[in-house]
Write a structure and sequence with these properties.
Elements (H helix, E strand, L loop, with lengths): L3 H14 L5 H17 L3 H18 L2 H18 L2 H17 L3 H8 L1
Amino acid sequence: MDCPSATAWGLYHLGETMLDRDPARALALLDESEALAATVGSTFLTGVAGTSATSLRARGGDPHQALGRFPDLVDLWDRAGNWTQQWTMLRSLIAALVRLGRDEPAATLYG
């Protein structure tokens, strides 16, 4: 029996374990988890997988691509009242801004 939610969670956890060892593979797994979770309406998993993938892009991948994801994810966590994930998003946004040489907005957020 196929269980997309369980598969998406498995992909997410595997992606998390590979963040430092193989960031490219981790990113692919996290993206796959996010997409699969979205197909079954698993908002929390869609959000955490998206948060992890966006944070990874902000720190070591394409910061421009990451910037495009922040508004939706910040809004998601704001609506959910989930401050743990919200702080992760804001820290990652600061990292992306620094990598892009946008020091003033990064410092403003940091402050």
